[in-house]
User: Fold these one by one.
Assistant:
Number 1:
Amino acid sequence: MDLFDNEVVTVDVGSRLRQMRTDRGMSMRALARKSGLSTNALSMIERGRTSPSVSTLYKLAGALEVPITAFFRLEPPKQEIVFQRASQRKRVPFPRGIWEGLGGETFIGQVEPFIITLEVGGESGPYGMLHTGSEFVICLEGQIEYEVEGETFILNPGDNLLFAAQHRHRWQNIGESTAKVIIVLAGFEQGERPSEFHLSSGKKADEEEA
């Protein structure tokens, strides 16, 4: 299963790209020159006529000097009750994986559930992450290795893990097939975006494509 392709970007990033470009006083021609993309391709993305591939997003992020998560960092209205159909999930790609929001982005409380799907060998990166609050993980498919403060846990389908998220942690798909987990973050500090650590700390796109 190849997750790292053109089809995984389901969020319209065109308006966000235009905003970041104009905020920096950068013309489309200048961004094209710095990113190595054509002005026509940039125009098509900004107008929502085409969806950028993951590698294209990394080129744009590098040219704008922002993390790839900046393209998806929109602030929707917060709600006390969130109902979301599967087709409405926000889906964000990262190297060898897909992050899918389960409504926490629009929920008024300090809880954020999401699904992470990982290709074989997909990982969160070599350095680990830490943030405020608590983290709950349940494995749906495949086999995930979670390392928390140097202690290793192997999660098979149905297995779960719960820990204080200020402990440094990382994860990787150690199985022979695609893995899928639900992660729930709760009790984090107001204004913190802990879910971003779970999609922006993997390998860079050029390493994946080499």
Number 2:
Amino acid sequence: MNLPNRLTVARIGLTGVFVAALLLPTDGRFHAFFPYGKTLALAVFIVAGLTDWWDGMLARKHKLETNFGALLDPVADKILTTAAFICFIEMRAHAGNALVQGWMVLLIVSRDFLVTGLRLVAQERGVVLKAERLGKHKTISQMVTIIVTLIGLAARQDWGSLGVEPEMFDQMFSVAVFWLMMVTVGLTVISGFVYFWKNQEVFLRDA
């Protein structure tokens, strides 16, 4: 297994560490291993994101592209981002509600896996589907939303709310996450619709 593919596999392994750091309760038996769990989750997510950039760069530079990497790399990305959004449902927002609502995550996950499936079908038929500009904006929006949410969670639990009164911080944080998610969901749904519309012949050919 070449280095880019090892980095891709490592990203999947880092997802497990990320989820553990994010979800372990503050008063749980294993919390001693994650005294700054939200901060660790933020750091792990950033490192995992960097491996995505690094493995692609190495594969292109040294001509190490493989079918294994082409299949696993987008799947590893989806596993990482999906894990983050699902974990956010478990986080509490102001007034005790879920920080991120389940329907938002359902739309994001459904779109991403449908598009991944479409690309795999196209690849089997020897068709290369180009990335759309809206899709790139969607990806940036998702990453920004996840990182900002992780920073807010770390600030709330590990950094003393950055010196802001906790109740006020929690309220501002909850509102910020809600609107970031609304933008992300909107871009996700619209970009998915455009992508399928432009490539409908791929999945309608033998419908």
Number 3:
Amino acid sequence: MAEPQVFHRRTPLRRMLDEQGMPWSALADCMIADPADPNGAASRLGIADLTPLPRLGFKGRRTIPAMKARGIEFDGEANRAFRQPDGSLCLVLAASEVVLLSNLAGDGTRLAALEEGYRIEDGERAYPVPRRDGSAWFAVTGRFAPKMFSKLCGVDLRPHRFENLRIAQTSVARLNAVVVRADVGGTIAFHVLADSASAAYFLECLRDGAQEFDGRLIGLSVLRGLETS
């Protein structure tokens, strides 16, 4: 099997995960840590590094109409996420900013087309931002996830207070972060975006908070399996 270092694009956590003997699976242009879940941690408390998956941002005064003109399905309500037909997510952070997350298949074709098709000459007052390079991306799943976050974050993420597809722009483990609730199948799940330069610190904080609930690292294949559960 190919090693992650042969790909130009890889998670900033590659060395840390390699040292822990994580298995890897290949995507189109990168490898992703893909441990199995024999003990069912995903339904209890699982943490997955999704940093290699494609994502893209757009910012500017006319971002909302520019995205709608490109066929992105959403309304203009801030701090909400909107599922797309292919399973990807559109995160509306403000009237002037959206972030697009790929589906769990890691299909970045549409995002690449959006970025490559942008032309400053069109004068849309919206421009692409390469979020894949600047942010780490984690998924945290399972019924104990809200309790774990209560130790790291001031926002109440319990299901009855923080509904599905809601977004919190907040501090997690003293880092600025975007937290998105986006359940997978019947399992509660959160996507968390934070500065990629602090990815190792952030993962250690998540793992430390998860110890009380026997939380484990899980892989992309496990998350995909939840989609049909």
